[in-house]
Specification:
6-stranded mixed sheet, single chain, alpha/beta, D-Maltodextrin-Binding Protein, domain 2, 5-stranded mixed sheet, 12 helices
């Protein structure tokens, strides 16, 4: 019998319930995001890019931002503002940091790497799943499919895990195709279908309803632990480098004291019930400070894609 995968990825209705419970939890605790009259500090202003809210509607997105601001305000009596809130893209992030209307922003790694030089403080934090901040993607097919390399997948049906943690997999897939001299995915495969859960990505291949799939290694390993027959019947065709899909960065001009306090608040919040619920919304189970060089593998992946697909392009185009 094949079991469903209980990984930190939920239907929209379930995540809506989590948001409602989280909001009540932090509200009952008496926390507020407004700066009190005795505070000498301006509130720390934070936001997220819309890319961070996969499958959340506008109302749930705003609820998540509000809940996060209330949670951070509870730590170390920190003054926090949930403005600018949700930003549309990297250009909006650059504008917010330039104008000083944001101090801390969570965004995808591709968005982060497109920011102009000088806008971002060298310190940053990132979310983890299963104790690691990196994700690795695997291209899978059945053992008895006759598929041995990427070349054997031409005109075949591909499923791809389209989550926040899987946000770099399309770039890796494009590099894999280009390295082997093939066209982009939309022209190479018979079909490419994004799927919102690891189990719904892997099991159709297992049951021969699709030819291959791309999923996070973490998702595949958890599914395999629950269903050993999946490991027996499936094989890895290709594996990506280890990549960090999301980061939280700080405005270059943020005060050292504010920076230390916000990092402490964000990292320590994960040890609370409310903090764990917030991490669930973002498909993660931990958070900590990371080194700048740890994101270089993402920069190299983007640079490789640009070199192979667009030889005259810059390594990473920054927003203007």
């Amino acid at each position: 019998m094949i079991h469903a995968l209980p990984i930190s990825r939920f239907h929209q209705s379930t995540r809506t319930v989590i948001l409602a419970l989280l909001t009540m939890l932090v509200s009952w605790s008496g926390f507020a995001t407004e700066t009190n009259s005795d505070s000498r500090e301006l509130p720390v202003k934070f936001g997220f890019t819309r890319s961070m809210f996969v499958d959340l509607n506008e109302g749930d997105t705003r609820a998540a931002v509000k809940s996060y601001s209330i949670l951070l305000a509870s730590k170390d009596d920190l003054a926090v503002s949930d403005s600018p809130g949700v930003l549309e893209n990297a250009a909006a992030v650059a504008a917010a940091f330039t104008s000083g209307t944001a101090d801390i922003i969570s965004l995808t790694s591709t968005e982060f790497l497109s920011l102009p030089d000088g806008l971002v403080h060298p310190r940053m934090i990132s979310a983890a799943v299963g104790g690691t901040y990196f994700e690795q993607y695997v291209l899978l097919a059945r053992n008895d499919s006759g598929i041995k390399t990427i070349a054997d997948l031409q005109n075949k049906r591909l499923l791809i895990y389209g989550s926040l943690r899987g946000s770099l997999s399309p770039i890796w897939l494009d590099v894999l195709l280009a390295t082997n001299g093939f066209a982009e995915a939309k022209d190479f495969f018979g079909s490419v279908t994004p799927v919102n859960k690891p189990s719904r990505t892997v099991l159709p291949v297992f049951f021969q309803q699709a030819d291959a799939c791309i999923v996070t290694r973490t998702g595949f390993e958890v599914l395999s632990e629950m269903n050993p027959q999946v490991t027996k019947q499936m094989k890895i065709i290709a594996t990506s480098p280890q990549l960090i899909p999301t980061v939280t960065c700080f405005r270059a001009g943020i005060s050292p004291r504010a920076l230390e306090r916000i990092i402490h608040a964000v990292v320590s919040a994960q040890h609370t019930v409310a903090g764990q619920q917030v991490l669930t919304i973002f498909q993660s189970d931990g958070i900590a400070e990371i080194r700048t060089e740890q994101i270089e593998s993402v920069r190299e992946l983007i640079a490789t894609q640009a070199r192979l697909r667009h030889p005259s392009a810059k390594t990473v185009d920054t927003v203007q």
